[in-house]
Amino acid sequence: MTRRTFAAGLLGALAPPLPPLPKRSPNILFILPDQLRAQALHCYGDPNVRTPNIDRLASEGLTFHNTVANTPVCCPARANMLTGRYAHKNGMVANDLRLRESETTYSELLHGAGYRTGFIGKWHLDGGPRLPGFVPPGPRRHGFEFWAANECSHTHFNTHYFRDTPEPIPIQKFEAEGWTDIAIEFLKQTSTDTRPFFLTVQMGPPHDPYKAPPAYRKLYDSAQLKLRPNWQPTPGATRADIAEYYGMITAVDEQVGRLLRTLDELSISDDTVVLLASDHGDMLGSQGQRLKRKPWDESIRVPGIVRYRRKTEPGRATDVFFTHVDFAPTFLGLAGVKAPSTMQGVDLSGLIRGESSKGPDSAFLQIFGPYDGDGTPAAWRGVRTARYTYARTKEKPWLLYDNARDPYQLNNLIDQPRSQPLRKHLEDSLNQWMLRTADDWSQDWSVKVEDAGRLYKDKAYYSVDEYSEDHNR
Predict the structure, then answer these.
(1) pTM value > 0.90
(2) Catalytic pick from 42, 88, 111, 124?
């Protein structure tokens, strides 16, 4: 059977046949811890945390300093990555909606082109109740062939997952270790399956609740932590919470090391692209704020480390913006598969291969509604450039920072008279982004769609409109 004809059956029916893969199409391993901000890694400058394996990955690959979550909250971020489209286009404008089966995803296209595709970990794209979290085989898996996942569970030490039947399978250890066990099982199948693979391992930690395995928590003395200058004492983001967060990160780092060692042991490291990223960051008391959905850097900036030994010069770094909508076209570009015109992101595979140094010079940011759970007061839009951050609500401008002079974003320039020309320039840039992506303020909502999965236990919603119709009856 050739790669051209491989995708027969159900998954093949989801997308038209694609040209055969080019010779030496690389494997791709995409590692996605949840709620890991870029500032909390040693290789991104954190003086507290111990991340030797992730640091090794950075020393052997390319670090994107400006990796940005376009919509910094779990479900929208994951949908943006999977579809290469902004949230108002793929429909995932809030947590606990279901990603439409009609969306074209990189996983469907890679599978259709002959890749063995695998998903392990937290899915969070099926809508409805988060637990039990069984996603049946078929189009709701969006092209993933191997499946070991749950919808969403932040019980980090005693959770469960599903394969192809609705019987839960327990993970009775730190969940990142359990997911890595399964990932190693998948990787070892390369000895009997010669197709290139795409595997993503999407771990729950270091998402709150902040609780690290005891051996890793002991590595951090909360009283000795060097906190960011913009940190303020904040309920739910105390020194003790941050120490637990660091402990979880170091525990995740150990699992990254296990995955890298497995690639070495299987002699496939040179032919495997590895990307480490996250869905969004965590304020952790910076600006006196918790969690995500904010335009500050601790919320929007995530790791973006890519290693491709055959193509990438080790130890490189770039200030080119790499945002979530760019992930899908970049994965496809690395595999030699043409991205559809409906994808809105940029293919940065040429930059990763060292063939180009160009890419986006800013990032478009979107949040579509308020949410009491993390203190987000209203919908907002924003733009992050190499130097500036600008955000506004529909009603008025909100934030303006000069990140070169003010890297911790302590001085909001939004109302300073001498900053008005700059504010107008960034407002124009934001308007251009909204026009280019066909976004407008009518996309926003006021109902608490974030609660959909908890309020409606027997139903999944594909859109805010569906939810609102039921909610307002």
Answers:
(1) yes
(2) 124
